[in-house]
Design brief:
By secondary structure, this protein is an alpha+beta fold. The chain contains 39 helices and 57 strands. Strands 11-12-15-22-23-24-25-26 form an 8-stranded parallel β-barrel, surrounded by 4 helices. Strands 1, 2, 4, 5, 7 and 8 form a 6-stranded mixed sheet that branches. Strands 29-30-31-37-33-34 form a 6-stranded antiparallel sheet, with helices on one face.
């Protein structure tokens, strides 16, 4: 359940946002809610609406369903989702960016184009002069003006009246209004293409605000916040102490008015403790009046409230806080006291004893509260002394000098508007409500505190502990939780907000962290009602990204202010990338539909923030221009403060200065005028223009490189045109006038051709001490714009060199001193540009995003003249196996192998999937440092591998190889840093085209199926291929539509039927590829359901030709390597024929298809081609006849040469049919003829030659498969499709006939009698009651040589349930499935043995060889590890019998199944093999020895998805 409230998700307007179910939610009733307004409705933060689910395939499939939000309205929106009856189990926020518009035609101003300049409003002078003063911003390329508050001010930043325009803006005789400001702002927007924003401050107001004294409830005072009384009392005492120190009263005690040293500080500590804290007795505000409490307690006891108990108790007393926070005002909860202290009896002595105990506890309680207050006092003293040291002694502090009434010992925390009086008189005012309400708390913040915590609320002691960094000219505002808590304040600030939103395009949230979030939310909502595309910017001085995101997401902050001064020391590329732009140069092209990942807040990167000191005071003037260049190259909004570009020598103080900004005059330059010759204005104009150009033209990729100390190169790259702009700048971290610096700068290698020098600038200074507010005329910037490289004064030499398989321009610098900047415009070499354009032209067929920058060629390779989909349509699905898959073992069969990435790993597949799996990990993260990307940049080896591998195959596959060869021809001639992203585009486009072609070959079930269906269906292509060493037996020449090809070896036409691999990478080549059992367990899912009917037919008939002794082989090899030692494979083969007849149109026609027999009789050897043909129904009859007559033979070539682990008796194969029950049986204790076929191999553990799971007797799933087959044959015969009605048994020289009807009836009548373990201990059918350890289940076998094996709980009976459900009573089946679910079901697979069994072991390790009989050499292969294919049958059985149990049960089961399948979907998505494994270790843990892809695993899960369809053909 994702809770993403602290994750940031940003999207631009116009995006479609989809909500999809994660794996844990699939199969549950989920509803998504959002407060994003429906079309035509207004936003209401508290009003949520449900979103409708969209089903893309018109099927209620949880894998692919989604909800849609079309994002067309800017703001912050919340979503959450419910699950079943659980409300709000997860959720988060979505930020939709605003769209800013400028000019008469409302042209969009992209956020990354913003160049903002901050103006201190008080320095603008009269309103009628503003245009002349802000013209400086226009003429230097800025497109946004940020005004500090334009309201009537108190002191510093605080506003005296939020609704009144500053009267200083109206000269004598005029009265300007907000309407006039609005007209000016609109003029700037329309005529100058400039957006205006202004500050809003919600957390405080000025002390001089008239309205706060008329409405003192709007602040924190001693009436509405009585918990502040101790803090107020301390504040007044400190003020009186400060006055006394200023008057010299404590000089003799070492505390003079002018502090000199540490000795004074220690003396101050003593005075504070003795003169302030000891006298105030602040602990009394916490304590209980003991005598009164004891008397009240005694009266309650005497009234009979106590009950006999022990008077000694260690429980805590409950103290009741006095709402008025008076001295000794706290009381004790008498009910809790009576629970704790109760007398033994009501005698006076017992009551007295109890009261004494109660009094003792109260005194202990008061003592603890005394210590608590003293702890606060110690912290307060530390803070006071620390503040004095900073303000009066520290070199970093303001050095305030002696203590005076103007500069007191410490800041006042509360306002005091009354005349001077003594502390005792002031204490009397504290209890007078009409006066106490005017003692208002000042605003401030606490360093290191939770910045979202309100330090004036009761839970904080910051005011008492003197931890506040106080702003004594402000009053902290108290909003409460909702407008009703303080109506006047909310209404006042709402009007202020609406007034601001009407005038300005955006706001800057000042003191954002000190403003209650719910207040800022409400106010910004009001602003957005009037201006939906409100631009919101803020500066958050916190390092915690989570806390930052809380503010950004809840308030819908568009941009966060970052200060380049803070980034000046960051030399690491990683530290800057989040500000310069998250996309690196050469980033991969992302698909249009992609997962939404948490983002970084959009940045306004400023060379100096409004709150920072002038950089001239902290660093060299030589650093101004380089820092501005660094900022301008950022892929985000940028900003500066008026005065920075003019190189002002000191900060314009928001507190003390009354200077006015200079005006623009391009002709003259006087002290009150500026032009492009002032400071770095000319350079800033060029940089601002460049910044806007880069953003507008899509230069979204960034690379930052540290060349030398102080020398930084920033590259902005356009991913469509592949032009770059490279800025090289030299910082002056150390002042070059006082610190030595080297003249040498390392050469720089720039890939491509330098088209021009966009800007070359050098800072020259003859700085003098000048405190004028205007610029430094002695400091100039010499610039050149748009010059040729040969005309540069900073480039000594520029040569074209070859490096890393690419052409670079080597730049040698000269006279590149601190303060220098040079910016190059770079294009690819003409040849590279041509190749890139052609490449993008051919990629348009995959995505329109390649249209920009594409170029049509004069002569295109012929293979590229047609779309790739046309070429792909020629490939068969067997060809697709070659194109997409084939693991290393399969590749080596053809003399090759999978591509090995140096310093990493080989790819899992030789085909495209091997690359796609790795690229899927790299692409979303733009992990260009991955070894695969390194390999692509370093050489063409991988490209050649991909194309040459396919070219060698010839035919249609070879054509695809030609296509790759032609596309890679372009790729080899582009800059190497671009090779990874375009290689990925080519591979991804080809892969997608291949999938589209594949699915066109497949059934409507796949074509219209979910993404999970399609992924599993690809297992059919993955597992079915044609190879030299694993060809199927030759089919009858009389059979039609058999695929053939011309053999490269014999030069003759040969059959080339696909063979199905059991698993990758272990069971895919040679004799280990084709397992009879695995083939037919998988055939229905991978071939029949996917529509590959011809391939299924050929495999069925090929194996039919191998029938021998009534069995088909477990391993399909040549001659002596063929093994007929499994009893179940033939029954899976017969089940597959039945499925073929059922699912394939006119499927029963297969029964008449000719079968070419390899062994016409049990005693004959293999026969030559065309030696023996017979119809399939004859072969089926032979198999049935053989079992009824009994099978007994010894494997051909028996002995260690055939199987080095098997005991001699294990080579004896027996099978038959019990004439009483009709059950098939077979095997012995030395062989293992079912799918649980692990043979012991360890001599050390003495299990060699011993089967771990012999399952001899009648295995439950084989009995079920036999019943299914017999029932089917009965129907076939009745329908006239099968000529045989019975099988014959020779007995005592005579032949007896057993009809299929009779055989079917016997199994039906006996199955539950013999296999069901009932709850009745006296069940007469139960022959071994002592071996029963679980009831209500079905036995795993009947008649095993080890009787206890029959009773083991294993996942085999659900197989019988699915193939022959008629054998099972619904209620009994449902109960048994419940036991299996509880005991056997794992995250992905089914435990192969009951975990309660004594030999259970869930971890499979085939390499382990020790003396552990049950584990050595993987002996526990089927004794606990969780196999996947049985899950398919279990889930199908659950669905089948749930439907019998009723609609509610079925619906619940469907949800369960969907939830379980979601785990398989997740595994498929994450698997580099793109398959489901053979097995896992316990609890779904990865097993090193398992096949990563197993045919049966994918097939049976696909069958479950088929069964989930509402209707089946």
């Amino acid at each position: 359940m994702e809770r993403l409230e602290r994750a940031l998700f940003r999207l631009e307007q116009g995006f479609e946002l989809q909500f999809r179910l994660g794996p844990t939610l699939q199969g549950t009733e989920v509803q998504v809610y959002t407060n994003y307004p429906a079309k035509g409705h207004k936003f209401d933060r508290l009003k949520f609406r449900p979103l409708d689910w969209v089903y893309p395939n018109s099927r209620e499939d949880d894998c692919d369903k989604y909800c849609i939000l079309d994002l067309v309205v800017a703001g912050s929106y919340q979503y959450y989702f419910s699950c079943g009856d659980k409300e709000k189990v997860g959720g988060g926020y979505i930020i939709v960016d605003p769209v800013l518009r400028v000019g008469a035609n409302n042209v969009i101003l992209p956020l990354d184009c913003i160049c903002s300049q901050t103006y201190l409003a008080k320095c603008l002078g009269p309103l009628d002069k503003w245009l002349d003063r802000v013209r400086v911003a226009k003429e230097t390329g800025y497109n946004m003006i940020h005004f500090t508050p334009l309201q009537k001010l108190g002191v510093c930043y605080s506003m005296a009246d939020q609704l009144e325009l500053n009267p200083d803006f109206s000269p004598e005789g005029k009265h300007y209004t907000w309407g006039d400001v609005g007209n000016l702002v609109e003029t700037l927007r329309k005529d100058w293409n400039m957006v205006c924003i202004s500050d809003v401050v919600y957390n405080h107001t000025a002390v001089s605000s008239g309205w706060i004294h008329l409405h003192p409830e709007c602040g924190y005072n001693l009436v509405n916040s009585p918990h502040l009384k101790p803090a107020w009392l301390l504040d007044r005492a400190l003020w009186h102490l400060s006055c006394e120190v200023a008057d010299g009263k404590f000089s003799e005690q070492g505390v003079p008015a002018l502090f000199q040293d540490e000795w004074n500080m220690n003396a101050l500590r003593g005075v504070l403790w003795q003169q302030v804290f000891s006298r105030l007795r602040l602990w009394e505000f916490l304590q209980v009046r003991v005598d009164e409490a004891v008397e009240q307690f005694k009266q309650r006891l005497q009234a009979g409230s106590g009950v006999g108990s022990s008077p000694e108790c260690k429980k805590q007393l409950k103290v009741v806080q006095d709402p008025q926070h008076r001295r000794f005002g706290n009381t004790v909860d008498m009910n809790s006291a009576l629970d704790i202290f109760t007398p033994h009896s009501m005698s006076p002595s017992d009551i007295q004893e109890c009261c004494i105990c109660f009094k003792k506890r109260l005194e202990e309680l008061n003592s603890g509260l005394y210590n608590e207050m003293n702890h606060h006092a110690e912290q307060a003293i530390n803070c006071i002394v620390g503040n004095v040291v900073y303000e009066r002694l520290s070199d970093q502090g303001p050095k305030l000098g002696p203590v005076t009434r103007k500069y007191p010992l410490c800041s006042r925390y509360f306002s005091f508007l009354f005349k001077d009086m003594t502390l005792d008189e002031e204490m009397q005012l504290m209890e007078q409500r009409e006066k106490a309400c005017h003692f208002l708390a000042h605003d401030g913040f606490v360093k290191g505190n939770d910045l979202l915590r309100n330090c004036a609320e009761p839970r904080s002691e910051a005011y008492l502990r003197r931890e506040l960094v106080c702003q004594a000219d402000t009053i902290k505002l108290r909003y409460g939780e909702k407008p009703e808590d303080c109506p006047y304040l909310w209404a006042h600030m709402k009007t202020y907000t609406e007034m601001t939103a009407k005038v300005f395009s955006g706001v800057c949230l000042v003191n954002c962290l000190s403003t209650p979030l719910h207040v800022a939310e409400y106010m910004l909502d009001q602003a957005r009602f009037l201006r939906p595309d409100l631009y919101v910017v803020a500066e958050l001085t916190i390092s915690s990204e989570e806390l930052q995101n809380v503010c950004v997401t809840r308030l819908g902050i568009t941009s966060l202010i970052r200060d380049a001064m803070g980034a000046a020391e960051r030399q690491k590329e990683e530290g800057s990338l989040s500000w310069f732009g998250a996309e690196p140069v050469g980033a991969f092209f992302q698909p249009s539909l992609r997962p939404l990942i948490p983002a970084v807040t959009h940045t306004m990167f400023m060379d100096v923030s409004p709150n920072n000191h002038s950089p001239i005071q902290t660093c060299s003037v030589y650093d101004f221009l380089p820092r501005s260049t660094l900022v301008s190259m950022a892929c985000c909004a940028t900003g500066s403060v008026r005065g920075y570009d003019e190189l002002l020598p000191c900060q314009i103080s928001a507190v003390r200065e009354d200077h006015q900004y200079t005006c623009w005059n391009s002709e003259a330059r006087t002290r009150d005028q500026v032009n492009l010759q002032t400071g770095i204005l000319a350079g800033k104009l060029a940089l601002n223009r460049l910044h806007q150009e880069l953003a507008a033209e899509g230069f979204t990729q960034v690379y930052v490189e540290q060349l030398d100390e102080g020398v930084v190169a920033v590259t902005r790259h356009c991913p469509s045109s592949h032009q770059s702009v490279v800025a090289v700048l030299r910082r002056a971290i150390k002042n070059p006038e006082t610190q030595r610096h080297t003249e040498d700068v390392s050469p720089m290698f720039i890939p491509g051709h330098i088209q021009e020098v966009v800007l070359e600038a050098v800072t020259n200074s003859n700085k003098k001490e000048d405190k004028n507010i205007n610029g430094l005329p002695e400091c100039t910037v010499e610039i050149q714009e748009h010059i040729q490289l040969k005309d540069s004064k900073m480039v000594k030499k520029a040569d074209m060199v070859s490096k890393h398989n690419s052409v670079y321009q080597e730049i040698m610098f000269e006279k590149f001193t601190p303060g220098c900047v040079i910016i190059f415009r770079v294009t690819p070499e003409p040849r590279s540009q041509e190749q890139l354009g052609a490449l993008r032209h051919h990629l348009i067929q995959f995505s329109s995003q390649y249209q920009t920058g594409s170029l049509a060629e004069h002569s295109t390779p012929s293979i590229l003249t047609a779309p790739l989909r046309i070429i792909m349509s020629k490939l068969t699905l067997a060809d697709m196996n070659m194109l997409l898959y084939r693991c290393d073992a399969e590749e080596r069969e053809d003399g090759g192998g999978c591509y090995n990435i140096p310093s990493w790993l080989p790819l899992n597949y030789g085909g495209l999937q091997g690359l796609m799996s790795v690229m899927a990990e790299i692409r979303p993260k733009n992990y260009l440092g991955h070894p695969l990307c390194d390999n692509l940049r370093q050489g063409d080896w991988l490209m050649d591998y991909v194309s040459e591998r396919l070219l060698a195959k010839g035919g249609a596959v070879g054509e695809v190889g030609q296509w790759f060869q032609a596309m890679f021809g372009y790729l080899k001639n582009i800059p190497r840093y671009l090779v990874p992203c375009y290689f990925d585009s080519i591979i991804q486009g080809a892969y997608t085209s291949a999938l589209e072609a594949i699915f066109k070959y497949m059934s409507s079930f796949v074509q219209n199926g979910s993404s999970l269906v399609k992924q599993l269906a690809l297992g059919s292509v993955q597992m079915c291929g044609v190879g030299h060493s694993w060809g199927l037996p030759t089919l009858s020449p009389h059979l039609k539509d058999v695929p053939c090809h011309l053999s490269e070896v014999t030069n003759q036409v040969e059959q080339c039927c696909v063979a199905l691999a059991a698993g990758l990478p272990h069971f895919c080549t040679g004799v280990l590829r084709c397992w009879g059992r695995d083939t037919f367990i998988s055939l229905r899912g991978l071939l029949l359901l996917t529509g590959r009917h011809l391939e299924a037919r050929n495999i069925i008939l090929a194996f039919a030709g191998t029938l021998h002794h009534g069995l088909i082989p477990s391993l399909l090899g040549q001659d002596s390597s063929v093994r007929y030692n499994c009893r179940d494979a033939v029954w899976w083969w017969l089940q597959s024929i039945q499925e073929y007849c059922t699912l394939v149109p006119n499927g029963v026609s297969i029964l008449k298809c000719p079968v070419q027999r390899m062994y016409p009789t049990d005693m004959s050897g293999t026969q030559p081609t065309e030696a023996w043909d017979q119809p399939l129904y004859d072969v089926i009859q032979e198999a049935m006849q053989s079992h009824m007559q009994g099978i007994s033979f010894r494997e051909f070539n028996a002995g260690p040469q055939l199987d080095s682990n098997m005991n001699d008796e294990g080579f004896n194969v027996e099978a038959g049919v019990d004439q009483t029950t009709g059950f098939t049986y077979g095997g012995n204790r030395f062989n293992c003829g079912t799918w649980m076929n692990k043979m012991g191999e360890s001599e050390k553990a003495h299990n060699k030659g011993i089967p771990a799971t012999p399952r001899d007797g009648s295995a439950v799933e084989i009995v079920g498969l036999c019943k299914s087959t017999v029932r089917w044959i009965v129907k076939l015969h009745n329908d006239g499709h099968f000529p045989y009605a019975a099988v014959n048994i020779p007995r005592e020289g005579q032949t007896y006939s057993v009809s299929y009807v009779e055989w079917d009836l016997k199994i039906q009548e006996n199955f539950e009698k013999k296999f069901y373990i009932s709850h009745d201990p006296q069940d007469p059918e139960e022959k071994q009651p002592k071996l029963v350890h679980k009831r209500g289940i079905y036995k795993d076998s009947l008649g095993a040589s080890s009787p206890w094996c029959d009773y083991q709980l294993r996942p085999n009976f659900p197989i019988a349930m699915m193939v022959a459900p008629e054998l099972f009573t619904v209620e009994k089946a449902w109960e048994a499935l419940g036991v299996a679910e509880k005991k056997l079901l794992g995250p992905l697979g089914m435990k192969t043995l009951d975990p309660d069994d004594m030999v259970y072991c869930g971890v499979y390790d085939n390499n382990l060889d020790n003396d552990n009989f049950n584990r050595a050499k993987g002996f526990n292969y089927h004794q606990g590890p969780e196999w996947l294919w049985p899950v398919g049958y279990f889930l199908r059985a659950k669905l089948y019998f749930a439907k019998k149990m009723g609609k509610q049960t079925y619906d619940e089961t469907v949800n369960l199944v969907k939830n379980i399948l979601s785990r398989h979907a997740v595994h498929l998505e994450r698997s580099l093999w793109k398959g489901l494994p053979e097995l896992t270790n316990e609890n779904g843990q990865h097993c090193l020895f398992s096949c990563e892809c197993q045919a049966s695993s994918m097939a049976t899960i696909l069958e479950v998805l088929y069964d989930l369809l509402p209707q089946q053909p």
